């Protein structure tokens, strides 16, 4: 058997980021940025008011107080979005809204609350009384206070969130160069598979794997290029694999990779350069990977996952997510650390397979007291068996049980991989 790390290294070897494309920024959510982006505009892009109030010359109100208010003549009104067309001169003020451009001559803003003018909509007053002094620059946001032109905003390799896109819009971007999203074909093998919703014939089971893998791909911001079920005929499967490779960037199969008499993936790909291994993990020991060649000569990576749904789920997190991150442009370092890891305390015990690393689907619950570790409990009362699919939706983490451990006891501390 080989280690999880060795198998992952083999899976990632030779995989490269997909080509880039330029897209409108509104269509870039979930894509990976291909180039570093520096600010094209300053933020704020002009000196503006941080408060609703009056733009003034600070020296004019230096002696203002409740007992001796300073009276100023109001000469203009500046709503947000308007460009001031006159200057503030000594003895005058201009009403200004939050975010509006500061007029020439003014160097401070008196909040409306420090004047005799009530808050809220009302006619422009002819004069105001100011009850407190303000210093130069008070309640003023200068151009570039937040971000200067040329400042680094988002670096290449970043998966673009709503917040990242908003930041890029604010500094002048309308389109971005991003890596193309991976297109993935999913093939489930087995004569025993029934269509979702059908009543299975004797000896048949519902095909939950294609739904599982397609959903996990969408959650990983990938495109599902094709979903298909194939029987246990090697020739038919190989033709389906070649067809999938013609348009997909990655092909994922489920089932047909262990040592059974009907393990069709091994037979169908014999001589095609696909490597099959026993990985020291549970669930998910039988794994396969390599490059599959389409009839047109195009070669794309292929992952061959086991057939049991929990094995598929765990294998996808450990091997498919990293290669998808690499194809999507996140880089090798990010691909090999795609999941956050932390420590947690078990609340129950369970058996573990000595000699293999157990990756048990668990429910992680945050601690109520600050400083305490979160707790975990297996999502199924029977532990981590590869067939225990009905409770899989409850899992939000994988508990990592070391190879040398054959039993987990209540209140053991384990590493967990957050999902």
Automatic annotation (TrEMBL):
Name the pathway: Cofactor biosynthesis; molybdopterin biosynthesis
Q: Which GO terms describe its cellular component?
A: cytosol
* Catalyzed reaction equations: adenylyl-molybdopterin + molybdate = Mo-molybdopterin + AMP + H(+)
Q: Which SUPFAM superfamilies match?
A: MoeA C-terminal domain-like (SSF63867), MoeA N-terminal region -like (SSF63882), Molybdenum cofactor biosynthesis proteins (SSF53218)
Domain (MoaB/Mog): residue spans on this chain = 185-326
Q: Which GO terms describe its biological process?
A: Mo-molybdopterin cofactor biosynthetic process
Top-rank EC class of the record's enzyme: transferase
Q: Name one GO molecular function term.
A: metal ion binding
Q: Briefly state the protein's biological role.
A: Catalyzes the insertion of molybdate into adenylated molybdopterin with the concomitant release of AMP.
Question: What family is it from?
Answer: Belongs to the MoeA family.
Protein name, as recorded: Molybdopterin molybdenumtransferase
């Amino acid at each position: 058997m080989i280690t999880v790390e060795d198998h992952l290294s083999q899976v990632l070897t030779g995989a490269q980021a997909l080509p880039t494309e330029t897209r409108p920024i509104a269509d870039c959510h979930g894509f990976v940025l291909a180039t570093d982006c520096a600010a094209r505009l300053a933020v704020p892009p002009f000196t503006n008011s941080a408060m609703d109030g009056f733009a003034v010359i600070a020296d004019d109100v230096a002696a203002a107080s409740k007992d001796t208010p300073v009276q100023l003549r109001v000469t203009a009104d500046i709503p947000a979005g308007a460009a001031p067309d006159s200057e503030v001169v000594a003895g005058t003020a201009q009403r200004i809204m939050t975010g509006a451009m500061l007029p020439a001559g003014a160097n401070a803003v008196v909040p409306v609350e420090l004047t005799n003018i009530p808050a809220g909509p009302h006619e422009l007053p002819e004069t105001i009384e100011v009850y407190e002094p303000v210093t130069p620059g008070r309640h003023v946001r200068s151009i570039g206070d937040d971000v200067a032109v040329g400042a680094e905003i988002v670096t290449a390799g970043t998966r673009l969130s709503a917040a990242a896109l908003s930041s890029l819009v604010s500094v002048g971007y309308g389109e971005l160069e991003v890596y193309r999203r991976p297109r993935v074909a999913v093939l489930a093998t087995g004569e025993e598979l029934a269509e979702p919703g059908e009543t299975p014939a004797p000896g048949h089971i519902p095909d939950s794997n294609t739904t599982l893998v397609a959903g996990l791909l969408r959650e990983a911001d990938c495109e599902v290029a094709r979903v298909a079920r194939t029987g246990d005929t090697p020739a038919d499967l190989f033709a389906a694999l070649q067809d999938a490779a013609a348009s997909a960037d990655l092909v994922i199969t489920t089932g047909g990779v262990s040592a059974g008499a009907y393990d069709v993936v091994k037979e169908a790909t014999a001589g095609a350069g696909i490597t099959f291994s026993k990985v020291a993990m549970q669930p998910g020991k039988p794994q396969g990977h390599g490059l599959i060649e389409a009839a047109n000569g195009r070669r794309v990576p292929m992952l061959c996952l086991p057939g049991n749904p929990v094995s598929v789920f765990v294998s996808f997190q450990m091997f498919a997510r990293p290669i998808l991150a690499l194809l999507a442009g996140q880089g090798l370092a990010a691909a090999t650390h795609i999941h956050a890891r932390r420590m947690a305390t078990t609340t129950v015990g369970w058996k573990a397979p000595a000699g293999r690393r157990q990756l048990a689907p668990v429910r992680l619950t945050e601690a109520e007291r600050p400083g305490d570790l979160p707790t975990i409990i297996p999502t199924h009362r029977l532990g981590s068996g590869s067939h225990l699919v009905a409770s899989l939706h409850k899992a939000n983490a994988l508990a990592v049980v070391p190879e040398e451990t054959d039993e987990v006891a209540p209140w053991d501390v384990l590493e967990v991989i957050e999902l």
